[in-house]
Design brief:
- This protein has 155 residues and is an alpha/beta fold.
- The chain has 3 helices and 7 strands; from the N terminus they run E-H-H-E-E-E-E-H-E-E.
- Helix 1 packs antiparallel against helix 2.
- The longest helix is centred in the first third of the chain and has 30 residues.
Length: 155
């Protein structure tokens, strides 16, 4: 079964628009680039042709990803700041640190300026999910066991 992606209405609209653009204008544009490169001659040493084909492959991969995300998403209409759930900004402090760090908790497709993303499927994300302000959670990282405190949650 495919992973469910939690998206804000804004992120869903942005991804749907990107999908439409790639599957219409994008496919036509890349086909034109490939055709122009073919007219330049020998394809075995044609850098323009190989670059266009590589771009076509990357675009096809992005279309497949967007298809999966859009078909398997849950649009989050209401985001609560009572616990760590997809769509919130969580402020954490690592054990032994004085400074805090803010992260968006949720899908990488949400992307907010100035915030890194913690995926709910990551070890830290699994430990933080459903956590409350003041909670201290631990998780296993490559460097060993790490502990963080949830300082604040913003919807």
């Amino acid at each position: 079964m495919a992973e469910t992606h939690h998206l804000s209405p804004e992120a869903h609209a942005r991804l749907a628009a990107e999908f439409k653009d790639l599957t219409t204008r994008g496919k036509i544009e890349i086909a034109d680039k490939i055709e122009e490169a073919r007219l330049l001659g020998d394809l075995s040493e044609n850098g323009d042709y190989h670059a266009a084909k590589e771009e076509q492959g990357k675009m096809a991969g992005r279309i497949l990803l967007l298809t999966s995300v859009l078909e398997n998403c849950e649009i989050l209409e209401q985001i609560s700041n009572s616990s760590v759930t997809p769509g919130v900004v969580v402020e954490i402090r690592f054990e032994g640190d004085e400074v805090t760090e803010k992260y968006l908790f949720g899908s990488i497709e949400e992307r907010r300026e100035g915030l890194e993303v913690i995926s709910p499927g990551s070890p830290m994300g699994q430990a933080l999910e459903d956590g409350l302000v003041g909670a201290k959670v631990s998780y296993q990282a490559e460097a060993g066991s790490l502990s963080v405190e949830i300082v604040s949650i913003e919807a």
